[in-house]
Amino acid sequence: MEDECLELKSTEMDALMAIYGESEQFEYSSNNDNGLISGKLIIEIDSISVQELVNNSTAPNIEYLPPITMKFTLTALYPLQEPPSITIECSWLNDFAIEMIKTRLDEIWELEHGICVLHSFIDILTHDLHLIKGITVNLQKDAEAIVVYNRERRLRDFEAQSFDCAICMEEQSGRHCIELSCHHVFCRSCLSLYLGILIAEGSIAQLKCPDTQCRRLPEQPEIKADEMQQLLNEEQISRFQRLQEQRKIDSDGSKYAWCPRQGCGLGVECDKTIERLCECDCGYVFCKLCLRTWHGNNHCEIKNAKRIIELYIRAVRQNQDQTVRAKLEGQYGEATLKRMLAEYDRESASMDLIRKSTQKCPKCCLRIQKTYGCNHMQCSQCHTHFCYLCGTVVDKTNPMAHFNSARSQCRMRLFDGIEGSVGYDREQQLLLQQPLQEEQDEINLMIQLAFEDDNDS
Asked: In which pathway does it act (predicted)?
């Protein structure tokens, strides 16, 4: 009987060797002294069985599960009288599931008693594992190993196929292609070139699947960071990360800021507990609003007062965006801005008075105020002769030609503004007397000297 059993076992081993060949999936050894044959089989689980198992679990998009290792020992009286000794090893099966599998294999042995059953065992583990009660995917036990194996198996199957690149339209081996998360396939060289151009141009918002089907979608799928790592060199990845950081900070200025320290320029996440406080990895602590050294609860120092007050005037008096007003008052203080606004109004009124009560020299632009005399003036700075009424340069050898010409708007107006003459404005003369006496004396002296020079000429 042992000889008959040995012959049956040898035939079974030859059949398995024909199926699996000399690979890591199947190996065995025999002991001629006691007739024992020991070995192991690494069994890949059928995709249908995997899907059924995964559907009953919380597993994320799993297409392949790590294989089951079935170790066996065949006694001298197998298969005619004694069953095989089976050990099941699998990273994602718990002890209860393994016991349920062994129970099912024992049932197969009872049904097929007297014949070789290893092939039937393999068939059960390959195709019908999901039919065994109590078998589930145990992600809590070895989730990382399952995900890694699933990725490796998908890659192995992918590389064994050929695909048409959606960019160059040529058929390429899967070894030279990449499949994006949206399942569109491109050859690596084409997609690397495409991404490299976009990154060089700084157009990272366009780093999305270039397939026409995806481009038609309202939200075009973006190319993921791990996919970028497979396609770009270190320099391109570094630039992409900088651009991505810049995009994040620029899109949400309330949470992030750029470090203003010279030579740094890192992106900084603002403190969530202290308003405006930012601390860079370089050690610089600064205010998010004014970018200067941290000044606590004190208001920011005003650097460009004119620009700030113009923004504040538009917000306060022209009813523009009130968020601007709130931001300015929060940064610089409401009392400070109102004081600046009052000073601005006083300065504006003074400038309006100067513009209305003076004339600009047409050559050197010096502002000149006439307190008395005719409208033929000579600049005390550049000695240009001009008309005080219209600011036109006049001929110093014949200044009266301007006031006598029929084409001149100042014809017959040489003495306009002098009390008693046509066009005299009493209120304007009173306004001219408002400046401080010291300033008025200086102005009068300058104009008097200019007037005397004019008479001498």
From this structure: Protein modification; protein ubiquitination
> What does DSSP assign to residue 131?
G
Residues 368 and 350 occupy one common structural domain: no
Residue 281 lies in a domain: no
Asked if residues 286 and 293 have their Cβ atoms less than 8 Å apart, the reply is: yes
How far apart CA 43 and CA 248 sit, in angstroms, is 48
Task: Looking at the structure, tell me whether residues 87 and 187 fall in a common domain.
Answer: no
Domain annotation covers residue 209: yes
What are the structure tokens assigned to 333, written together?
């203080």
Q: Which of 59-73, 97-111, 142-156, 323-337 has the highest mean predicted lDDT (pLDDT)?
A: 97-111
The Cα–Cα gap between 216 and 179 comes to 19
Q: What is the pLDDT of residues 257-270, one digit of tens each?
A: 888 888 887 888 88
Cβ atoms of 416 and 373 closer than 8 Å: no
- Enumerate residues 6+ apart whose C-beta is below 8 A from 194: 167, 210
Q: Is the distance from CB of 386 to CB of 360 less than 8 angstroms?
A: no
Phi-psi sector, 420: left (phi>0), alpha (psi -120 to 50), beta: left
Rounded distance between C-alpha atoms, residue 346 and residue 335, angstroms: 17
Query: Cβ–Cβ contacts within 10 Å for residue 278, how many?
Result: 22
User: What is the pairing mode between strands 267-269 and 256-258?
Assistant: antiparallel
From CA 232, how far away is CA 228, in angstroms rounded? 6
Q: Which two tokens stand for residue 183?
A: 């399942």
Q: Are residues 194 and 142 in the same domain?
A: no
Mean pLDDT in residue range 244-260: 79
Q: What angle is formed at CA 148 by the lines to CA 145 and CA 154, rounded to 5 degrees?
A: 135
Residue 424 lies in a domain: yes
Which tokens is 327 given?
Answer: 């931001």
Q: Total structural domains in the chain?
A: 4
Residue 172 falls inside a structural domain? yes
- Domain span at residue 448 reads 360-456
Other CB atoms within 10 Å distance of the CB of residue 453: 14
Amino acid at 222: E
